[in-house]
């Protein structure tokens, strides 16, 4: 390493604390936006180039830099999104948060010809604006440039492949391998676009389901995770739970009811209409069952699972499926627990007192 590069390396050592401050500001800002927006990304990370890495860079390209201020990637951060169309959403925030050095910012997604595939990533070179952070005793915080890379997870995978194979180095790669790499790049780009299209189609489907449910038209809606969640969000069991809560003037604690979906499917329900018809048909029995279950108990709170559980129990018992199936229901909803057998016996006894079980029915044994 020549004397000039040694001088730059010494500057790097002197400014390490400043680089640390910049890194923390950048990562906190990026993570803060991810949390605020409610979006999910694969990763948000930042690092400071190590002395060894910088030394290696200076040995190769030290002649390009007048001082440490000319090296723009000593502090580097990266946001990896799940979908490629989310890259531009984060890019808009980068431009809002930081002062962008447009002369050195590179959108490598736009650098390929129409028949080319390869490395795709958006590289911003930025500074921290004084409006975001300012320390009069350390003005370098607002002068030192840093890099932010934005890419999708499949673009990130391609970058890792390039790095591992040495594809970006000056070492010539045989044409047959280069062709294979380019085919892989094209496949990843196609997959990136396809994932976005599938995501958009699913979101459109969910919007349609949401609107149909709001209109109370369940006939053509398949019972699945999306439609069931929308049914719950539109007060699927709320009326019954509130009615049960009046027994002892009890409060209702909200819990997840997603475990009931597999139970309803096991009953043979294939559409949301079948589920809604079931709720309407068995609500009165479920309420009567709950009166017998809670009227002599000093309870001041129930969970939102109380209503759907009562519906399932009275359905099982009225269909002569018996105590063993009630226990399987409890195992399915709450997981296998030692008390499930005793609870099933108690619930079955209540059902018998209501006349849901025929006397001497062996299915309950």
CATH architecture of the largest domain: 2-Layer Sandwich
The fraction of residues assigned to DSSP E strands is 5-15%
| Tally of separate domains | 2
CATH topology tier name of the largest domain: Beta Polymerase, domain 2
The value of Rg in angstroms is 31 Å
- The count of helical stretches stands at 13
Instruction: Find the count of extended strands (DSSP E, 2+ residues).
Output: 8
Distance between the termini: 86 Å
| Overall average residue pLDDT | 86
Uncertain segments of ≥5 residues (pLDDT<50)?
A: 111-118
Structural class: alpha/beta
The biggest sheet amounts to: 6 strands, mixed
Mass-distribution shape: elongated
Name of the CATH class of the largest domain: Alpha Beta
What is the CATH H-level superfamily of the largest domain?
Beta Polymerase, domain 2
Q: What is the topological layout?
A:
Elements: H1 3-14, H2 16-37, E1 43-48, H3 51-61, E2 75-81, H4 86-97, E3 99-100, E4 106-107, E5 122-127, E6 146-152, H5 153-165, H6 175-214, H7 225-233, H8 238-245, E7 251-253, H9 260-266, H10 272-294, E8 301-303, H11 306-318, H12 322-334, H13 340-353
Parallel strand pairs: 2-6, 7-8
Antiparallel strand pairs: 1-2, 3-5, 4-5, 5-6
Features:
2 domains, alpha/beta, 13 helices, 365 residues, elongated
